[in-house]
Design goal:
Blueprint: H1 11-23, H2 25-29, E1 39-43, H3 49-57, E2 62-67, H4 70-82, E3 88-92, E4 105-111, H5 120-129, E5 131-142, E6 148-150, H6 154-169, H7 180-186, E7 190-202, H8 206-222, H9 225-230, H10 236-247, E8 255-266
Parallel strand pairs: 1-2, 1-4, 2-3, 4-5
Antiparallel strand pairs: 5-8, 6-8, 7-8
Amino acid sequence: MKQRYVHGYSAKESSRLFDQAVTLTELLHDGTYYPKGAKLLEAGCGVGAQTIILSQNSSGAKITSIELSPESLKKAEALAKKSKLKNVVFQQADIYNLPFKKASFDHIFVCFVLEHLKDPVAALSSLKKVLKPTGSITVIEGDHGSAYYHPRSSAAQKTIDCLIKIQSKLGGDALIGRRLYPLLKKAEFKNVRVIPRVVYADSSLPGIVDGFTKKTFIAMVKGAKEQAIKLGLITKSDWQRGLRALSKTAGKNGTFSYTFFKAIACK
């Protein structure tokens, strides 16, 4: 089966997702709380990195977390059990063909999912059907084109561009953050509001440097090495040169900035 998830399903990738979730909890989840008794659908829960935060922040909500990949779903269930989550049930499901009745959920949460889909509008339209008339949807995505860093380096940029090209070849869009507003409008959601959430790191912020620059972004780029070389997007020597340059952004005199986009809309 052709791999559709650009980052793969390795233990290293699971660890990267957890590091990302922990580091960005305040940035991405600020204002995302659901009331007691609310029925929430988390679409594309992956290995459960965001599920933990959703559950802890909205302990009274009833959360259904779905995932297409059985490997990821198994990891999410194990993490939920280890974390003793009481308000989450997991289910394998296809976001394009949801096994729920119309108007089943009060709220829907989608994080780092649309970037991997060939038809994000169709996915949003499918989700809209299971949302109650008074319901809301929250969508969070990144945008690799928003990566700004020092020292500037064409070699480092080439490695980032490889990741963008690989995701495009797999049918996704690593630049989707900037498209959330038109995508939600095309899926006929109302009152669409998009909030940029910028993460910035320099040596005065060692926790962000370690958790985001090193363990999230650079680790994500590292994970694309074999695919990039195999597809002929870059040579091994150029890759190594670019990664060394990118690593300098996490050094004493380096800086790194990246923008996530958080959209909230109503049915």
